[in-house]
Design brief:
The chain is of the alpha/beta class. It folds into two domains: about 60 residues, Ubiquitin-associated (UBA) domain (Helicase, Ruva Protein, domain 3); about 190 residues, 3-Layer(aba) Sandwich (Rossmann fold), CATH 3.40.50. About 35% of the residues lie in helices and about 20% in strands. The chain is built from eleven helices and nine strands. Helix 1 packs across helix 2 and helix 2 packs antiparallel against helix 4. The chain is globular and about 65 Å long. The termini are far apart.
């Protein structure tokens, strides 16, 4: 089969496991051919299809996420290496970067803290946007920190990005004018797609019986300089509860919605 026929067949096969079967097929075939998706779509339709493509489709049919199969994922303005040691960056999380940009306007943060950095997505996207800023990404997973460091090196951001094994208590430092955080926020026992629960790290997903356990640790620890801001990701139904936790600690909060219109980011600032 030629490229067009191969993509059609693969999309039909993947329809049972993916909401975006055609896109998945294109990304997997481009990876097998060692080219970009754009080059695949613009290239000759009779190009040779590598045998390795079958194996990639077989992996996707077992619910393995495309990002883990191809080893990378786009986020904001950067391309990130990803492995099963880290949560796959989602477009929803870009809402935190948008909220931070809205807060600072024409100013720029000087020091950035990324709590639970994972792949380094939030910190590295922020450093890419603000070329004078420096940042620290913390995580309790040594394997995740290795991925984050590799991403910083690959993107040329290593001179401005540090990573350390640490927990939520780092939020108490108070010297960071931008704090970013995408903590675990799914309640234990929640039903999730097989490609999520069967492949992504549980420590990055689940946060107690109600999904709020990590916020309960972050809120009392958080310290911000006078004009600082914390942009914290939440589940679509958690805004009221999470805002309450931070407001009980004396902060002002408001919510920013993602492109789908769901509550996605609690923006935390000092009073006055």
């Amino acid at each position: 089969m030629n490229v067009a026929q191969t993509l059609q067949q693969a999309a039909r096969d993947l329809a049972g496991v993916s909401d975006t079967p055609r896109l998945d097929a294109e990304l997997l075939l481009a990876h097998a051919m060692g080219i970009s998706r754009e080059a695949l779509l613009l290239g000759p339709p009779d190009a040779t299809v590598p045998e390795a493509f079958r194996d990639l489709v077989a992996r996707r049919l077992k619910d393995e996420p495309v990002a883990y199969i191809v080893g990378h994922r786009a986020f904001w303005t950067i391309e990130l290496l990803v492995t099963p040691a880290v949560l796959i960056p989602r477009p929803d999380s870009e809402t935190l970067i948008e909220a931070a940009i809205a807060h600072f306007g024409t100013r720029a943060p000087q020091r950035i803290l990324d709590l639970g950095t994972g792949s380094g997505a939030l910190l590295l996207a922020a450093l890419d946007h603000w070329p004078q800023a420096q940042g620290l990404g913390i995580d309790q997973s040594v394997a995740a920190l290795a991925v984050a460091r590799a991403n910083a090196d690959r993107l040329g951001l290593a001179p401005r990005a540090r990573f350390a094994e640490a927990g939520w208590e780092t939020a108490a430092d108070g010297g960071y004018d931008l704090v970013l955080c995408n903590p675990p926020y799914i309640e234990a026992g929640a039903e999730l797609p097989a490609q999520v629960v069967g492949h992504e790290p549980p420590s990055a997903l689940f946060a107690g019986a109600d999904g709020l356990e990590d916020y309960r640790h972050i809120a009392p620890a958080l310290a911000l300089p006078p004009d600082g801001v914390a942009c914290i990701e939440i589940g679509a139904t958690q805004a009221r509860a999470v805002r309450g936790l931070f407001e009980a600690e004396g902060f002002l909060t408001h919510v920013k919605r993602d492109l789908a219109g769901h509550d996605r980011c609690v923006v935390v600032t000092n009073i006055g």
